[in-house]
From TrEMBL, chain B:
Keyword rRNA processing: no
Membrane-spanning segments: 21-44, 78-95, 107-127, 133-153, 165-185, 209-234, 246-263, 323-341
Family label: Belongs to the binding-protein-dependent transport system permease family. FecCD subfamily.
Pfam families: FecCD (PF01032)
Topological category with respect to the lipid bilayer: Multi-pass membrane protein
Protein name per Swiss-Prot or TrEMBL: Iron chelate uptake ABC transporter family permease subunit
Localization per Swiss-Prot or TrEMBL: Cell membrane
Keywords of the record: Cell membrane, Membrane, Transmembrane, Transmembrane helix, Transport
Matching CDD domains: TM_ABC_iron-siderophores_like
InterPro entries: ABC_BtuC-like, ABC_transptr_permease_BtuC
TrEMBL record, chain C:
One of the Pfam families matching this protein, by short name: ABC_tran
PROSITE patterns named among the record's database cross-references: ABC_TRANSPORTER_1, ABC_TRANSPORTER_2
Cellular compartment(s): Cell membrane
Designated name of the protein: ABC transporter ATP-binding protein
Species of the source: Agromyces soli
Protein's membrane topology: Peripheral membrane protein
Record InterPro entries: AAA+_ATPase (IPR003593), ABC_transporter-like_ATP-bd (IPR003439), ABC_transporter-like_CS (IPR017871), P-loop_NTPase (IPR027417), Siderophore_ABC-ATPase (IPR051535)
Annotated keywords: ATP-binding, Cell membrane, Ion transport, Iron, Iron transport, Membrane, Nucleotide-binding, Transport
Amino acid sequence: MSTIDRPRLDPGYRRHLIRCGPIAVAVRTRSLAVATALLTVIALLAVAALGLGTYPLAPDAVLDALFGGRDTLDRTVVLEWRLPRTLAACVLGALFAIAGALFQTVTRNPLASPDVLGLSNGAFTGMLLTVVCFSASWPLMTAGSVVGGLATAGLIWGLSRRAAGQSFRLIVIGIGVAAILASANTWMLLEVELDTAMFASAWGAGSLNGVTAGALGGAVVCSLPLVLLLGLLTPGLRQLDLGDDVAGASGSRPARTRAGALLIAVGLVSIATAVAGPVAFIALAAPQIARRLAGAPSLSLTLSALVGAFLLLASDLVAQHLLPVTLPVGVVTVSVGGAYLVAVLIQEIRRRA
Amino acid sequence: MTVAAISRRRDALGGSRTGRARIWLGLLGLLGGLAIAIALSLTLGSNALPFGDVLDVLRGGGSPEARYVVEELRLPRTVTGLVVGAALGAAGALIQAFTRNPLADPGILGVNAGAALAVALGVAFLGMRDIAALVWLAFLGALVVTIAVYVVGSAGRGAADPIRLTLAGVALGAVCSGITTGLTLSDPEAFEHLRSWNAGSLLGRGFDVLLPVLPFVGIAVLGALLLAPGLNAVALGEDIARSQGANLAGIRIGVILAVTVLAGVATALAGPISFIGLMVPHVARWVFGVDQRRILPVSILLAPAIVLLSDVLGRLLIAPAEIPVGIVTAFVGAPVLIALARRAKASAPS
Amino acid sequence: MPDRTTAPSALPTASRLRAEHVSLGYDARPIIAGLSTAIPDGSFTVIIGPNACGKSTLLRGLSRLLSPAAGRVVLDGKAITELAAKDVAKRLGLLPQSAAAPDGITVVDLVARGRYPRQRLLRQWTDADEAAVAEALDATGTRELGPRRVDELSGGQRQRVWVAMVLAQETELLLLDEPTTFLDIAHQIELMELFARLNRQGRTVVAVLHDLNHAARYADHLIAMHDGRVVAEGPPSEVVTSERVEEIFGLPNVVIADPVTGGPLVVPSGLPAARAEADGR
């Protein structure tokens, strides 16, 4: 790192300049602090998640087991039973949140989420069709949901292609297709046995119950290239905030950036949905929470990912250990996310009053 | 502001260019359609009756079997369809005009989520099974949540900002639906009740349920019609509306009250019937222009016709089984919405 | 065909940016058909014309935001559509009408967004970036606004900040689409002076303006458009004549000598009664 003596421009907030070899970037001090705090909280929650359960472990026992302790039972419980689920909560939460941030940036609409493209409904339809037509085995349901989600996204994309770049039209068509699928889902749920319907609904709410290390590994391997690709798009994505004309005039390609970002977002959501089902509200709420924590004008993908990981991990802890009955984590994320949005609204009202 | 919005304003200012003949023809078609829908709803079903028999029953005669089918099953069902349709049509037209958002739907005020939560609570904790009692509970739920949405969406500045109102509806709706899902997933009986309620149905709502809610609907529909001229002023933007002497605060409260009662009653009676409130005002706007004084009455006549026809369709498609009406309306309404969005001049929110 | 004061080929100076028989429009609706014009290097060129005559469309075509349906826009000898977007943005900056600042962004951050074409993935904020932003702020007199939020600024301040953002792009060609609209007369003049200064420092400035008198006073080259065609181009003293203003804008007028600069000054001549007569004709 190097230090610079000349007086710096004052951007209106404190920031760190990082100069290291080929890297030269400026980072908001507050964003760094928020990221550090989030990482700490996530680590603490993870230790708690690894320790809680019918075979409770103290935090030091958890750490011991993680870093090569000798107690084989502890190691089995922590590494094989609980670690995949805890890691899945972090990774999938981050994936949902990144996808949400992309949708919101591209559509410039804080209420947009992957559901706009009917992904959740489509995934649920695919899964229900699999259950109704074939069997309720986990790999088949996963395949059904991914195919359903992608097919829906493709359909909406095709229907709105003529209006490329008009995010409003994309949203309207998404609402229409999502409504048809939601009705189809309601109807299928009516036609199957009560047990099957309840099982399917639990999956439809999004749940980490069936997560295995293998599924998680697959999700990481599939999403890593997409996230790296996203890194290349980020600067152009930020120019979109200024409106298409300014973005285009300053040398970015708004239409291409937008299409690329949407494709990556669809990919990330499909991967996460395949593992955990359509977990609601993380994609919608995490980017907005991150933005408010950082006090920054643009959505930050990194901070959104951290908030997403935190939200899903915390919600899963609540769903598993704090409620009288064990519920799918999606039920908790919806309530928590909704309550948060209400809090934000009330806060804004206070500020203006 | 978009070009579409500008042309909308110009139309609103200069009066509609739609010819009188077209309006009368449209009105005639509308009334004819509604009559046909009522006739079909009374005649068709898994046990189809000749129309003559239906008329006999209505005049006070007919075979006992026909009397049972018409008086106990089809007449209440048809009246339910009329009430629900008229209420949803009026509520949809009001909320779209008020938020100046062509995509607004009464559901955005949290009506559906509140009613569903109340039904789930009633079944899970109060052991309620009777549809007549659940209707009132659902209405209460819709009322409470809508008022909460209104309070969150408007507190502090005394005026409800449509955007904040929408956000508040989304947020509170999410909280309610989360709790509802949680409740139903841990209580199979509540789940069973709610999965059929969610589909939306006109079946089994007798006159004992219908008659008490009729005065509410009647007053709210009347109120909606009285609000129409004020909403025309609102369409030009708040500043112009104020300078034209419109009482914005009064219009707001009137709209919120009317929408709450109308959508609440409809949802409580029939469950969430999607797309009627969204689609019907659009169709009315296509045919009759942008004047709210026409859109509102047309929506009130057109929506029941569509609800009844959808219900008849649901009875016939997979007879002797039935598809619930809420699902049929989504399958009919969503393609209309998509076609609308794909048209070159699809109206974007201003 | 209306007469041309100066044929494009007869221009004495070289032109890095020119349009050759371009047709421009949206969807299938052409707004400009077969238009040719050239921007003299180092000039302060102003495009004038009535509403909907294609001024902004031409500017969008010149800046690569709109691809021509026919013909080509040439920048430094190459068709602009064949150049990479970032290459164009390093040579040519545009301030469009529809600029939107994200909520809560500060002035320095907004101006820094103009550095986009010169940034690379790992080098987002170098000393060169910082120097360019500082220079752009100084040039527009907005340096002391740096830490403030853009949405807190007055209209005139905000417009200067947007100009600073385009300046931070460090381009020799500067295209401005109605930069003074919605500003009061003092702020309009302040901005025009700023553009004139930037022009004197060596930049080629192209602006679309509504105010004929501002155009006549500050430009050294005018392009007058009507109905998607160039009706006249050349120095203001030759382009701004009473007949031509009436022909383009349909406005009866007299052109007098500007008491300050001696250049042309358009004064509408229609008194209410006289206008009524003209309407009745």
